[in-house]
Write a structure and sequence with these properties.
By secondary structure, this protein is an alpha+beta fold. It is built from eight helices and four strands. The chain has a four-stranded mixed β-sheet with strand order 2-1-3-4, with helices on both faces.
Amino acid sequence: MADISTIARPYAEALYKVLIDSTELSSTHFDEVTAWLAGLSKSLENESLVQFIRHPNALPEDILDILLKINPVDVDVAPALAQIEMNFMRVIVDAKRFEIIPFLLPHFLQWVHQRTGIMEARVESAFPLSESEKSTLLESLERKFLCKLRITESVLPSLIGGVRVTVGDEVLDGSIHHQIERLRGALLA
């Protein structure tokens, strides 16, 4: 079976392309869709909601209704955008692909960032990076990926040292933890 993130990719791409093709919308609406997808993903952290969605007797219209009540679309601001979001949710509900919802936002942002020429770089380090370390890392990564990057930093003490960088689907793992695991694997082989 395919990875859930892999399944989510074409859904996010389709949403992006529908937004691009819409003559009634502009690139400013990407922020609204990003916030909507983030809210939708956050709502699925509620275990009661997930149980309801997965219940075999739950009707698709009821699921759609609840998801849109928890994370409403704003019909007054941009009716075309609201219609796209509602149709998108209907596709997900009808296909029973609820598990992809948390994976939609990163893929959608990847498409948006490609359009703007800016991609997201998720940097995980064992300790907080100094401003000069971030600057040096950013310069190096922008040379490697040949585009502008926006860094999102998080601290993971389990890495022990070094950094792990994720840009799109590519992961560069220079952490001490990763090196120890590679050495362990070599010794056990």
